[in-house]
Please model this.
Amino acid sequence: MILEQEHTPLKNPVPDLSVCIAGIRFRNPVIAASGTFGYGREYQGLLDIACLGGICTKGLTLHPRPGNTGPRLHETPGGLLNSIGLENPGIPAFIEQELPALRELGPVVIANLSGSTVEEYREGARLLARASVDMIELNISCPNVKAGGMAFGLDPGPAASVVQTVRKAWDKPLMVKLSPHAPDLPAVARACVAAGADALSLVNTFQAMAIDIYTRKPVFQNIKAGLSGPGIKPLALRMLWDLWEAVRVPLVGLGGIANTPDALEFLLAGAAAVQVGSATFAHPPLMPEIIQGIAGYMQQYGVARIEDLSIRSRAS
Model:
């Protein structure tokens, strides 16, 4: 896809789409977001998985979780509400049953680690450190669990405590996934970086709800759920823009990316890479199309490398 605006002669017919985040080389900046791509194998036959930059696993916890009961998904005009509740087989089962096949797919493997207590985070990180995982995405922002999750990501103190604990058990690159509900997101981000985060991803879903007008009850048993999709993109983009000025680690942008222009906005705003989530449900080949679209845009405007896309510049 080449965006049709003012034509500029080609200057760089073969742009370099690779990016380096915390020492990990990605073949391109497009990553499958956690909770929307399973463990990769679920999408085999629907798209060329090997072309992706990376895959974030479903949220993983130390012990198996059955997830939330009742309805789990509800479409809205601007996106998708979900109340999955971190359903997963537990980290030991993931390592034994899912990780070998995930590694064979080719993209960088990022384990999304969650927990209800600091101790669970530590033990989960310790087990993952023994496995062939490239990076942890530390989830301190899930809104769909009653204990832990987002509670750790709202304030700098608890956020730093979890990051520091995981950092001691994990010696590979560590990315922290931030909540849009933190009253002072830059403060939380700075605390995570000071505690050992190598990169930050933002944002997780926004808490929202829906009511069934026929039963006259909330749709979800937990009342509130996480909103993703196009409706949150302008908010997520603004938060990444603000955070770029607050920290000096790579930022991975996500939230409502549904096409190439959306992804480009995040990259122009300073993101090192992007994650695509709920839009993949509606159109599984979307991520390869976005990769091609980014390459076409770079060719059209003579941009040699992904990092050259950013319109931001830091003072020396």
